[in-house]
Design a protein that fits this description.
By secondary structure, the chain is mostly helical. It is 65% helix and 6% strand. It is built from four helices and two strands; from the N terminus they run E-E-H-H-H-H. The longest helix has 16 residues. 0% of the residues are buried.
Length: 68
């Protein structure tokens, strides 16, 4: 999907471009609140709960650790 580009406002230099999709997320308090809540839930998760909820990610990390 092509990214929508807008002209910047504020302290950016002339000719700089800003990705509109990322800027909309940063100014939307509901999306930012949901992202922070999700991150906090993942950080509070114990090791076994993380392994149970993300088994393929853990397998990949295990394989990459021993491959290197």
């Amino acid at each position: 999907m092509p990214s929508a580009i807008i002209e910047p406002k504020g302290e950016l230099h002339h000719g700089d471009q800003v990705d509109i999709h990322h800027s909309e997320i940063l100014v939307n308090p509901d999306l930012m609140s949901d992202a922070v809540d999700g991150e906090n839930r993942e950080h509070e998760m114990g090791m076994w709960a993380a392994v149970k909820s993300h088994p393929w990610a853990c397998l990949y990390a295990f394989i990459m650790c021993f491959t290197l």
